[in-house]
Design goal:
- The protein is of the alpha+beta class and 460 residues long.
- The protein has 18 helices and 12 strands.
- A hairpin with a 2-residue loop joins strand 6 and strand 7.
- Helix 1 crosses helix 2, helix 7 runs antiparallel to helix 8 and helix 14 runs antiparallel to helix 15.
- The N terminus and C terminus are likely disordered.
């Protein structure tokens, strides 16, 4: 099919006064650029980055069609090959039949009963962290949440204690994610081939550090021949009974482990960081969450069985991920011309769907900038289109760890909030940094305040 499409049916686009204007504006302020594009041109809008046509979709129905109904008409977008340099052919980057095979092999590790068994481990890590804090101390909560979720993903999914290496691993992951920021550039693939560039040399060093950790875990588990009941054990033992009855190679296991290792801690840590920030700005919601936690738990630590008794805590987390979705954009490449209403998207266009933009649409969320957990009562959720809120994506590529993430977020909020309030340091700058995930650019400096003289362990 020809990629030539009459201009009359192309989605509307802002004019470029000079070559590269869109690229410069997008790179300078990605979120602001996309927000203005949708505001000025509607739910289907186009812009140009070099030779690459980019189309933004913002209506829930159009997003559903791309991610679910017509998912086979798309593949992952620009930056996929660059991402594969770190993650290989993991669930986040693989395509088609290979992706479905890998998902079948990994799915049992995320079964509801297995995830529920991780609850006590999550709470234990939360206690260890909260007991290391001191009343009145100031700290970067973003850093603390990264350290916390890193330990949890290592133990629950890989049966490993990486506490002694947490700082090094955390720094390596942060640096790897920072290096991905150029993935949207039209000449990113060319830059990747220039091995002499300092950034490329540094990336290889970072990848080698992370590979060493992952391969050590695989080697240790193979040598022990112990089924630890975690993801690594299941990946080593998994057999594709619906396909070729084959097992994963060490390279395939490495790719899946690296994907879960990164995705399994970075996203939850950011969601928790933004939640603590929002609670610090809304003491009424914070007080209501504290009251629910105290009433439901009576001073004991939370477990998976307590989640139904913590609906407001879940609503707080959901509203936080509405305003500050850890995964803030999804990209797909159209394999052929694709119609959206009366517009036609040219073949090979990159289609962007931004949770950050859609989650702040006043059609679905009145007064969208306002923090209001009541938006996530069952009744309120049922009244909205499904893809007006999609923090975990959708369709065949929906996050495999969604249940894990919800439980982890709620358990950690409850565990830490039993003992502490976290108050934003006055004048600390809040600026968004949309990298692979949505981070606070300057961290999140907060002060610990003990909630009272009594808590689960009798500490102040």
């Amino acid at each position: 099919m020809s990629t030539e499409v009459p201009s009359s049916v192309l989605p509307p686009a802002p004019k470029q006064r000079y070559p590269g204007q869109h690229l410069m504006a997008f790179r300078r302020d990605m979120l602001g650029f996309l927000q203005k594009l949708v505001q000025d041109h509607g739910d289907v809008a186009r812009f140009q980055i070099g030779p690459q046509a980019m189309v933004v979709l913002n209506h829930p129905d159009a997003i559903r069609d791309v991610l679910v109904t017509n998912a086979k008409s798309f593949v992952k977008g620009r930056g996929l090959e660059r991402t594969k340099r770190l993650l290989g052919e993991g669930l986040l980057t693989s395509e088609r039949e290979f992706h479905l095979r890998q998902r079948r092999l990994a799915q049992p590790a995320f079964h509801r009963q297995r995830v529920a068994a991780y609850g006590d481990v999550m709470a234990a890590h939360g206690v260890k962290l909260r007991d290391s804090w001191r009343d009145g101390a100031t700290m970067d909560v973003s850093h603390e949440m990264m350290r916390l979720t890193l330990g949890i993903v290592a133990e629950t999914l890989f049966g490993a204690d990486v506490s002694s290496e947490a700082k090094e691993i955390g720094e390596a992951i942060s640096e790897a994610l920072d290096l991905f920021i150029t993935a949207t550039l039209p000449f990113a693939e060319l830059l990747d081939k220039l091995s002499w560039l300092p950034a490329n040399r540094r990336f290889k060093q970072v990848r080698a550090r992370l590979d060493a950790v992952i391969y050590r875990m695989i080697e240790t588990r193979r040598a022990s021949e112990v089924d630890g009941g975690d993801l690594l054990s299941m990946l080593l033992l998994a057999q594709d009974s619906e396909g070729d009855n084959g097992r994963m190679t060490d390279l395939q296991i490495r790719d899946e482990a690296m994907t879960i290792f990164l995705a399994g801690h970075e996203t939850t840590a950011n969601a928790l960081t933004w939640t603590w920030y929002l609670l610090s700005q809304h003491p009424d919601a914070e007080a209501r969450m504290h009251a629910e936690i105290d009433s439901a738990l009576g001073g004991r630590l939370p477990s998976a069985d307590d989640l139904p008794a913590l609906p407001y805590t879940r609503m707080v987390l959901a509203e936080s991920m509405r305003l500050y979705p850890p995964a803030w954009v999804i990209g797909r490449r159209a394999l052929a011309e694709y119609a959206v209403g009366h517009y036609v998207i040219p073949a090979r266009s990159i289609v962007l769907m931004s949770q950050f933009i859609t989650h702040r649409d006043a059609r679905w969320f009145a007064d969208p900038e306002r923090f209001d957990p009541e938006r996530f009562t069952p009744e309120a959720q049922a009244a909205r289109p499904k893809f007006s809120y999609y923090p975990f994506g959708g369709g065949v590529r929906q996050c495999i760890g969604e249940g894990f993430a919800w439980m982890e977020g709620i358990v950690l909020l409850a565990t830490i909030a039993q003992r502490w309030r976290l108050l934003l340091v006055p004048d600390h700058p809040i600026e968004l940094q949309p990298l692979v995930t949505l981070r606070p650019k300057h961290g999140m400096m907060m002060r610990c305040e003990a909630r009272g003289s009594r808590n689960t362990n009798g500490h102040r």
